[in-house]
Amino acid sequence: MTVIQLRPTPTKFGGLAIASLVLGIVGVCGSPVLLLNNATAVAAGVGVALGAIALFGSHKVMAGFGVGLSVLGVAFTLVAQNAAVRALEGTDQHVETLNWGKRHTWGDGLAVEVSAPTECKPGPSSSPSTVARAVRFTVTVTNGTDKPFESTVLSVSSDAQFNGRTAAAVFDHGGGCGGNSGFDSATVLPGKTYTYDVSYSIGTDPGEMQLTLRPSFVADKAVFTGRV
């Protein structure tokens, strides 16, 4: 009698898919708690990045749920904190519009600059899989405060638009657009500068690009705009 031994099918990025799902659940559950949702939103931002990588593995459904829950965690946190700010202050946040290459400095001394965009070519394993045209920005954060700053908070509270529509972030590990390292967690010490690149998918025709950044969900918005 011949005995056939079945070997389990090896999984790829299974751990990342599980981590993304867990972080997404943490982000959603923590979003209504004002004292905790800054931290849980950072966790959800990491969950988006991990889930985007895991989409190329063998647990695509789990990774998809992880990305979806992580995005919801960030969105719910924004809604909760914006509602709290309006209730406390009774006014909307201030918005400053800047051109590429200009610097915005918040009241606590934290500053940010966004370079003019340059076109980039995503690699074959990038996400989204189909990109008509992609642009890459260099973001420079200067910590003029007296406390360490976590760069991920600036990234997960960003808003990118092209011609009035949401511009999807491009995750391109090993390609020409980079891995969207804005979602990497970096601690910027007081007096130090940190630089990272972010890439977005846009339309084929020239248009107006808008990138909004803020260091917390209750801070004023720095809106960088220009033609690309």
Task: Note the topology.
Elements: H1 14-30, H2 37-54, H3 60-89, E1 95-99, E2 103-105, E3 110-114, E4 118-120, E5 133-143, E6 149-150, H4 151-156, E7 159-162, E8 165-166, E9 187-188, E10 193-202, E11 208-213, E12 221-227
Parallel strand pairs: 1-12
Antiparallel strand pairs: 2-3, 3-5, 4-5, 5-10, 6-9, 7-8, 7-11, 11-12
Helix pairs in contact: 1-2, 1-3, 2-3
Structural summary, described in words:
The protein is α+β, with helices and mostly antiparallel strands. Helix content is 31%, strand content 26%. It is built from four helices and twelve strands. The protein has helices spanning 14-30, 37-54, 60-89, 151-156, and strands spanning 95-99, 103-105, 110-114, 118-120, 133-143, 149-150, 159-162, 165-166, 187-188, 193-202, 208-213, 221-227. Strands 1-12-11-7-8 form a five-stranded mixed β-sheet. A hairpin with a 7-residue loop joins strand 11 and strand 12. Helix 1 runs antiparallel to helix 2, helix 1 (14-30) runs parallel beside helix 3 and helix 2 (37-54) runs antiparallel to helix 3. The radius of gyration is 19 Å and the shape is globular.
